[in-house]
Amino acid sequence: IGxxxxxxxxxxxxxxxxxxxxxxxSCGMVGMGTTLIQAIRDRGxxxxxxxxxxxxxxxxxxxxxxxxxxxxxxxxxxxxxAVGWLLGQRHVDALLLRGDRVAExxxxxxxxxxxxxxxxxxxxxxxxxxxxxxxxxxxxxxxTGLRNERSPxxxxxxxxxxxxxxxxxxx
Length: 171
Hints:
Order of helices and strands: EHHEHEHEEHEEE
Structural class: alpha/beta
Oligomer: single chain
Number of helices: 5
Largest sheet: 8 strands, mixed
Radius of gyration: 15 Å
């Protein structure tokens, strides 16, 4: 499921920054993010998750935190504005973003706030994983990508900012 894409930098817990919710309450049945976290733990690695509030809906601080608590995964909720500080301190092994839409050219529509987080992650050489179900690929334009879409609830993440695109079919 992509667990091998996150190496980590120490023997301590793997530190993941999650922007928004990627669990079953928003992603159906299991959830891409929670499945990845469980796969990492199944491999014997401890995990700590930094969860952004994901304003304005606060789906990270409310929903993601609730689901991580149910899985008994240690987490810390931070304000969206603290992402730059956190990534700058090298406390993060990977940034996980939920891909709501994926174009053939690799552009992804992610929760608003995902683009600035990915830009800071790139600068700090932190891998950016976009977790998207295969259904997010359907009916996406191949030539124009997502450039013509405008939505205050999502950011356009260009393909070159993405270290790895993870789907339920990724092995």
